């Protein structure tokens, strides 16, 4: 069993993992940049190590410093959290080469799913339905035009090593394809140090549905139902729900069965999320995230499973503590991502939190590292809090979300709380009548008037 865990991340996710360690009586080490020296995870950890200055490349992406911190403190495991090095094959391999447990998948599975073309080909072999598109990278624009014409416009250009909406370009007409490919390649190079892009059919009105899986080292694999992450801006998730208001029990069982069988065949280890677009009753694989997801708490709320705890147990070599038949969905959960940004312009808003009051009450959970007087650094993602709400059904969950948002007070900086207050009472949101384009096409234009 893991005795001392180093947390190679920051913010709310570092605090989430830290709390799991305390619940499991595991000693914790938090590495941090100089900009995060006064953060809540650093304050609450058993030990902390500064690994560099504020910029991520000098701290949270510094593999040598992180592994050195683990060796110096005697940590026998490293949890990468979310983002940064969480899906780095190089990092996971180096951790294991130093005889330290990596709380995550095998390096080869991170590599397999890290490249979107390879992941898509693997999905086909595993019997998972995929979006029609190019067989490989776009290295010939004339060939790309032929494939696009055969599929029909619109199409979308994507970075093979991409994520978070970077390196994506939607193309409506043939005349725009050449320029879109060049722009996507440039963005891919800038964000992922890899200019390779590929092409897929652009679905008109899909929902974004993802299945949470967890597998151990003993051949067991279980899915924890789906999450609906369709409320997005520029491919960035803003609001998530579990279960999806658009998925039936039969569809859930069908898709979950396909995914679990695929993970068993792959010999996967740890937690993972398989993401799909869902349109006209059909699912299309888009990618697999080989790590913990930001939105994992809503799955915890409807299943009663502590995903981070199970993740640590699996990494320790323990079998899953439950079987598929043990998983029962209870009620409905919603997560609002609270960002340090203006709710209309979406401009980042780092700065000092002058006052902080979190909502409470039955069914309300806050995952946040904020406190009054905390200075939000300008170097990192703008996510500062997750409001997670559970209700006996979706209607109650929406009411409770609205009530909790009305109580939530963060001053001194701009936040996205006002945006979420409007979303919680919107008529389309009330009925669940939305898709991945709804926020930008239907809601935000009206909200700004």
Report on this model:
- The chain has 449 residues and is an alpha+beta fold.
- It folds into three domains: 4-86, Rossmann fold; 132-201, Dna Ligase, domain 1 (2-Layer Sandwich); 207-447, 2-Layer Sandwich (D-amino Acid Aminotransferase, Chain A, domain 1).
- It is built from 15 helices and 20 strands.
- The strands form five sheets. Strands 13-12-9-10-11-14-19-17 form an eight-stranded antiparallel sheet. It has a five-stranded parallel sheet with strand order 3-2-1-4-5. A three-stranded antiparallel sheet has the order 7-6-8, covered by helices on one side.
- β2, α2 (40-44) and β3 form a beta-alpha-beta unit.
- α4 packs antiparallel against α5 and α12 (394-407) packs antiparallel against α13 (417-424).
- The termini are far apart.
- The mean pLDDT is 95.
CATH class of the largest domain: Alpha Beta
Count of individual helical segments: 15
Distance between the termini: 56 Å
Q: Give me the side-by-side strand order of the main sheet.
A: 13-12-9-10-11-14-19-17
Rounded average pLDDT: 95
Kindly provide the radius of gyration, computed on alpha-carbon positions and rounded to a whole number of angstroms.
Answer: 21 Å
Major beta-sheet overview: 8 strands, antiparallel
Q: Report helical residue fraction.
A: 25-40%
Spans of at least 5 consecutive residues whose pLDDT stays below 50 are: none
